[in-house]
Amino acid sequence: MKTDIEIEESTVIQPIINISRKLGISDDELELYGKYKAKTPFIKFDREKAGKLVLVTAINPTPAGEGKTTISIGLADALNQIGKKAVLALREPSMGPVFGMKGGACGGGYAQITPMEEINLHFTGDIHAITAANNLISAVLDNHIFQGNELNIDLERVIWHRVMDMNDRALRDITIAQDGLKKSIPRADHFDITVASEIMAIFCLVTSLADLKVRIGKILIAFNREGNPVTVADLGITDAVALLLKQALKPNLVQSLEGTPAFIHGGPFANIAHGCNSVLATQSALTYGEIAITEAGFGADLGAEKFLDIKSRELDKSPDAVVVVATVRALKYNGSADKAELDIENLEALEKGFVNLKQHIQNLKKFGLPVLVAINHFYKDSEAEIQLLSDLIQAENIDFAVTKVYAEGGQGGVELAQKLMSILEQPKDFQPLYSLELSTSEKIQKVAKEIYRAEKINFSEKAQAQLLEIEKNGWDNLPICVAKTPFSFSDNAKLLGAPTGFEITVRELSPRLGAGFIVVYLGAIIAMPGLPKHPAALDMRLADDGKVTRLS
Question: What domains are there in the chain, each with its CATH number?
Answer without folding.
Answer: 4-125+251-423 (3.40.50.300), 127-245 (3.30.1510.10), 440-522 (3.10.410.10)
